[in-house]
Write a structure and sequence with these properties.
Layout: H1 3-6, H2 9-21, H3 28-37, H4 48-71, E1 76-80, H5 87-90, E2 97-102, H6 104-110, E3 120-124, E4 141-146, H7 155-168, E5 171-179, H8 181-190, H9 207-211, E6 217-222, H10 227-230, H11 235-245, H12 247-251, E7 254-260
Parallel strand pairs: 1-2, 1-4, 2-3, 4-5
Antiparallel strand pairs: 5-7, 6-7
Length: about 260
């Protein structure tokens, strides 16, 4: 498994840790997989603050997918770069088509823990090769989760991937987290993915500029740390967490955008 694929163990650890604390995210599957995998986590990756942050990010994506499914019950859900995430189980709203997509070696590992069904499938997909989008089933509307993936694609690669999405699906709803250019540069010193050997990440300062040639447009920006979730932390932890992961300073590093066409 290469360095990029190894990054999947960082959010898995965080979700397992938070789930055990019974806050933010209920994820027994993450707890089970983490107990079995036993991947060595070290350095910044073991921070409880990072675990809280990743769990909140996952919860924001979960809640958004729930909302989108309520509005588009026949839509297909595409989780690109799914890793070992159990969003397909955490979502309470029923879905007709769900596709978890990742590199072949990740999907091979994933199939040890998840079972395909009539409405749930796992598909080999490399987002840096947009032509692979043609292998996905056709649908009128797609709800697309791009969580923790954009920073591994250069701006041209990301633009080509988004273009392949819009050519494949007439109607799109996308939630995508991105580093800013400053955040990508700063990641050399602060990012936990360095602990598993990743040394190059990419950032975006002008999301509208990235989208200019596309039909896909920016709908709105979301927060990673809703106050309702921050309140689930212990009172003694809330202030420090807000300093680290909330407000204008954090937005200089990291943003969360909802897109649609």
């Amino acid at each position: 498994m290469n360095e990029v694929n190894k990054t999947l163990f960082i959010p898995l650890y965080g979700k397992s840790l938070v789930s055990k604390k019974h806050i933010i995210l209920d994820d027994p599957t993450a707890e089970m997989i983490w107990a079995q995998v036993g991947f060595p986590i070290k350095g910044k990756s073991k921070s409880k603050w990072l675990a809280y942050n990743m769990a909140m990010r996952a919860r924001v994506f979960d809640d958004w997918v729930e909302q989108m499914l309520q509005q588009n019950e026949s839509a297909a859900v595409l989780h690109i770069g799914c890793g070992l995430d159990s969003r397909c189980q955490r979502i309470k709203h029923s879905y007709k088509h769900w596709y978890d997509c990742d590199f072949p070696e990740v999907i091979a590992l994933r199939k040890k823990y998840y079972i395909e069904s009539d409405n749930y499938h796992m598909i080999n997909l490399d987002a840096s090769k947009p032509e692979q989008m043609n292998s996905l089933p056709d649908h009128d509307t797609a709800i697309v989760v791009l969580e923790g993936i954009s920073m591994y694609l250069g701006n041209n690669q990301l633009q080509e991937f988004l273009n392949a999405l819009q050519e494949k699906y007439p109607s799109l709803h996308i939630l995508m987290d991105v580093y800013t250019v400053f955040g990508a540069k700063a990641s050399k010193y602060k990012n936990p993915v360095n602990d598993v050997g990743v040394s190059k990440l990419y950032g975006i300062d002008d999301i509208n500029g990235l989208l200019t040639p596309l039909k896909i447009k920016l709908k709105k920006e979301h927060t990673f740390t809703p106050s309702s979730l921050v309140q689930e932390l212990k009172p003694s932890e809330r202030f420090f967490f807000k300093v680290l992961f909330s407000g204008a300073i954090y937005r200089k590093f990291y943003r969360l955008f909802e897109l649609e066409c």
